[in-house]
Specification:
Helix 1 packs across helix 3. The longest helix is centred in the N-terminal third of the chain and has 16 residues. This protein is mainly α. About 50% of the residues lie in helices and about 0% in strands.
């Protein structure tokens, strides 16, 4: 089973690709909207890519919570059962 850091790195790659930035430009807590010019269309793209990558379903109601890398990890980990 991958470590939390390995999952974070993988999610960082997916999010950075969707936001069209370099992965190292993003910290765990930098805001996708305020710091990286993210918008709702990119948020939905990120959501879809995470669902496909991890074989999970994330309700769009979770999107407002998913404003930075750590928050995205927390939502994905909960849905994927990584914390159990």
């Amino acid at each position: 089973m991958p470590t939390t850091q390995q999952y974070l790195d993988e999610i960082r790659e997916i999010v950075a690709d969707s936001l069209e930035i370099e992965p190292d430009e993003m910290t765990e807590t930098s805001s996708f909207v305020d710091d990286h010019d993210g918008d709702s269309l990119r948020a939905i793209e990120i959501l879809a890519r995470l669902e496909k990558r991890y074989g999970i379903e994330i309700p769009q109601a979770e999107l407002p919570k998913m404003g930075n890398l750590r928050a995205v990890y927390d939502v994905v980990a909960e849905r994927a059962g990584w914390n159990s």
